[in-house]
């Protein structure tokens, strides 16, 4: 099972369990939707 962390790894925003704003990559990195769209442009830095 994939592990979603409670905070965005980019901006440290709180991501409660089941949040529709929580995004996870195949490396189990957790980001908020804003960072994925604006800062990372859909690409995990790892």
How would you portray this structure in words?
The chain is an alpha+beta fold and 46 residues long. It has one domain. Helices cover 15% and strands 13% of the residues. The chain is built from one helix and two strands; from the N terminus they run ββα. It has a two-stranded antiparallel sheet with strand order 1-2. The longest helix is centred in the last third of the chain and has 7 residues. The N and C termini lie far apart (20 Å). The relative contact order is 0.26. InterPro entries: DUF1272. It comes from Amycolatopsis rhizosphaerae. This is DUF1272 domain-containing protein. Pfam families: DUF1272.
Low-confidence stretches: none
Provide a count of the helices.
Answer: 1
- Report the sheet-strand fraction: 5-15%
Number of strands: 2
**Structural class estimated from helices and strands:** alpha+beta
**Amino-to-carboxy terminus distance:** 20 Å
- Give the tally of structural domains: 1
What key attributes describe this structure?
1 helix, about 45 residues, two-stranded antiparallel sheet, alpha+beta, 2 strands
Give a concise summary.
With 46 residues, the protein is an alpha+beta fold. It is 15% helix and 13% strand. It is globular, with a radius of gyration of 9 Å.
Q: What's the helix and strand layout?
A:
Blueprint: E1 22-24, E2 30-32, H1 33-39
Pfam families: DUF1272
Protein name: DUF1272 domain-containing protein
Organism: Amycolatopsis rhizosphaerae
